[in-house]
Design brief:
There is one protein chain. The chain starts with 6 loop residues before the first strand and ends with a strand. It is α/β, with parallel strands linked by helices. It has two domains: 123 residues, Rossmann fold (3-Layer(aba) Sandwich), CATH 3.40.50; 96 residues, Winged helix-like DNA-binding domain superfamily/Winged helix DNA-binding domain (Arc Repressor Mutant, subunit A). It is built from eight helices and 14 strands. Strands 2-1-3-6-7 form a five-stranded parallel β-sheet, with helices on both faces. The protein has a four-stranded antiparallel β-sheet with strand order 8-9-10-11, with no helix packed on it. It has a three-stranded antiparallel β-sheet with strand order 12-14-13.
C-alpha cells in the first residue's frame, strides 16, 4: 500500500483549518481522509475507521488532543502529528512524551505539513526506498510504476534503471557519462541520443509539463538531477 492510500484522521475545532488541511491533502493525492471537530467525534471516527495516522489539534471544546492520543495508545501505535497555536516547550514535551511523532505550530505552510506527513508515514510503514515523491508525481519502485494525477504509468527496464540511479544520487547531478556507463557499460559511445529519448519519455510520465521539467532537470553539458520532495 502506498502512503496516499493510508487513512488519515484530522481533528481540529476550527472549520477553516480543517477544510484547508483536507483540501491540501487531497490535492497532494491522499484519498482516505476523515475529519472531526471535537474529542467525542474524533474518538467515534477513530473506532469506526481505524486510521493509519492522526493529525490532532491540542485545544478542543470538549477535551484535548493529548486525551485522544492517550486513548489511541491503549490499543495501537499509529503515528500522530500535533497541531497547535501553543508553542511553549512544555506542550511540545507533553506531546512527545505521549508518543507523538511531530509537532507543528499554527500558522503553518500546507507544503510543510504534507512533507512532514509523508516523512512520518514513510518511517512508520517502512517505505523509504520503495516510493519516491516528486513535485507532481511519485515513483513506486516495488511495482515499477509512476503515479501522476491518479494515473499509473508502467516503467520500462531502462526507465526504471535511470530513475533508480538518479534516486540513489538524489538531489545531486549525475553526469551523462556516469549514466551511460552504468546502463550500457564501458562501450557506451553512441548511446547519447538513446538516453535523451529515455529521459524525454520519463518526463512525460513524471512532469506536469514535460517541456518545462521541475523534477528531472538537465544541467547542460553536464548531466541530470532528480529533485525529490
Amino acid at each position: 500500500m502506498n502512503i496516499y492510500e493510508r487513512k488519515v484522521l484530522i481533528v481540529d475545532d476550527e472549520k477553516e483549518i480543517l477544510e484547508m488541511i483536507e483540501y491540501a491533502l487531497k490535492k497532494e493525492g491522499f484519498k482516505n481522509i476523515y475529519t472531526a471537530k471535537n474529542k467525542r467525534d474524533a474518538l467515534e471516527t477513530y473506532k469506526i475507521t481505524k486510521p493509519d495516522m492522526a493529525i490532532l489539534d491540542i485545544l478542543l471544546p470538549d477535551g484535548s488532543g493529548f486525551e485522544i492520543i492517550e486513548y489511541m495508545r491503549q490499543s495501537d501505535n499509529i503515528p500522530v502529528l500535533f497541531l497547535s497555536a501553543l508553542s511553549d516547550i512544555d506542550n511540545k514535551y507533553e506531546g512527545f512524551n505521549l508518543g507523538a511523532d511531530d509537532y507543528m505550530v499554527k500558522p503553518f505552510m500546507e507544503k510543510e505539513l504534507s512533507l512532514r506527513m509523508k516523512a512520518i508515514l514513510n518511517r512508520s510503514y517502512g517505505m523509504e526506498d520503495k516510493v519516491v515523491y516528486l513535485k507532481h508525481s511519485y515513483i513506486d519502485f516495488d511495482r515499477a510504476v509512476i503515479v501522476k494525477e491518479d494515473q499509473e504509468y508502467e516503467m520500462t527496464a531502462k526507465e526504471y534503471n535511470i530513475l533508480k540511479l538518479l534516486h540513489e544520487n538524489k538531489n545531486k547531478v549525475v553526469t551523462i557519462d556516469g549514466i551511460l556507463s552504468a546502463l550500457w557499460g564501458q562501450q557506451y559511445y553512441g548511446y547519447e541520443n538513446t538516453l535523451m529519448t529515455h529521459i524525454r519519455k520519463i518526463r512525460q510520465k513524471i512532469e506536469k509539463n514535460p517541456s518545462k521539467p521541475e523534477s528531472l532537470v538537465t544541467y547542460k553539458g553536464l548531466g541530470y538531477k532528480l529533485k525529490e520532495n
